[in-house]
Amino acid sequence: PSAYMLRPTGSVRGTTRIDSSTIALDLDPAYPLQAKGVTYSVTANDVGYDTTHVIADGAGSTITFSVYGANEHDVYAYPQPLSLQAHGGVVFAGLPPLADIEVFDSALSSVAILSSNDGSGGVRWNLRSTNGLQILPGIYFYVVTVKSADGASTVWPMKKLLIQR
Question: Which one of 41, 44, 124, 150 has the fewest beta carbons within 10 angstroms of its own beta carbon?
């Protein structure tokens, strides 16, 4: 397990050899992979099937991947509650590969529209309105519209976001 490094968080608890070129990683459940809008990576160092079959040698080989949300129950915003003074933005996470997020103020006027189309499972909002103004503290709402490859879209239920001073 020490030959594998999982980033940005997590750890490899053990491995199971599947065949001469495949190893299954047993990840530590204390650090579950989540759709947080981040790209994960696994780096393998000095890994071999046996003394004659090298899988990863020297400095290591790295693969990257993302985790995304499957339904409206996976979507969340973090950090929450959010402080304008302490945080520079909020991440909408648990998103499917293609989604738009529309943010509304407490009067349900549209404040910002964001798009997540890189498959990372999240998108960061800089807390600025569509016209570039810093938003004020208060209760905000957001709606996720899921887009499919064939152009169809589905609107998921509205959720709440608290932004403090």
Answer: 150
* pTM recorded for the entire structure: 0.75
Which residues are registered as beta bridge partners of 159? 142
Question: What are 22-68's pLDDT values in tens digits?
Answer: 778 898 888 888 777 778 888 887 666 566 665 555 555 888 888 88
Question: Is residue 111 exposed (0-12), middle (13-18) or buried (19+ Cβ within 10 Å)?
Answer: buried
* Cis geometry, peptide bond prior to residue 8 (ω within 30 degrees of 0): yes
Token reading at 98 = 């293609």
Residue 32 CA to residue 94 CA, distance in Å, equals 13
DSSP state letters, 6-46: EESS--EEEEEEEETTEEEEEE-TTS----SS--EEEEE-S
Q: Encode burial over 118-141: b for 16+ CB neighbours within 10 A, e otherwise.
A: eebbbbebebeeeeeeebeeeebe
Task: Tokens 């750890």: give the residue.
Answer: 11
Determine the pLDDT at residue 57: 58
**HSE-up of residue 94 (Cα within 13 Å, Cβ side):** 12
Place of tokens 């996470």: 93
